[in-house]
Design brief:
The chain has 141 residues and is of the alpha+beta class. It contains 3 helices and 4 strands; from the N terminus they run H-E-E-E-H-E-H. It has helices spanning 2-21, 70-93, 106-132; strands spanning 27-28, 39-41, 46-51, 97-102. Strands 1-2-3-4 form a 4-stranded mixed β-sheet, with helices on both faces. The longest helix is centred in the C-terminal third of the chain and has 27 residues, at 106-132. The radius of gyration is 20 Å and the shape is elongated. The relative contact order is 0.16. Bound molecules: zinc ion (ZN). Zinc ion (ZN) is lined by residues 53, 58, 60, 62-63, 102-104.
Length: 141
Amino acid sequence: MSAVKGKNTRIELAIRKTVHHEGFRYSLHNKSLPGKPDLALKKYGVAVFVNGCFWHGHSCRKGKRPTSNKNFWDVKLERNVKRDRDNTKQLKKLGWEVVTIWECEIEKGARKLVRKLNHKKKRLQELPKQDNHPKPEKLGS
Ligand SMILES: [Zn+2]
């Protein structure tokens, strides 16, 4: 599906840049994960797919199917949608949280993703702190 990937590259790069800029590290197209997520942030358990609206059947204007050769496109695109669904299901089973960012909502999607990651980061930072620093002895006891 190199044509599909090629279409996504520009969006994918924009997302990568934003996520990287915020200080998060990720692996790209991790082959050991279902669907080879575009970005996988192991530390946070978040897998990200950057989807082109047409190829992945988004319910927006760009995701509209062609009216000519209808059968051909229906079969082809439904296969993509089903594959996405299956990959999401498998990833969730493995404990990953799946984030899909659509081509038509890159900025909104990137913002949401960064907010989610920052939230998780904060929680991760808070947890070990409580364990590593025992409470001071109670005064007067
Ligand atoms: Zn869309």
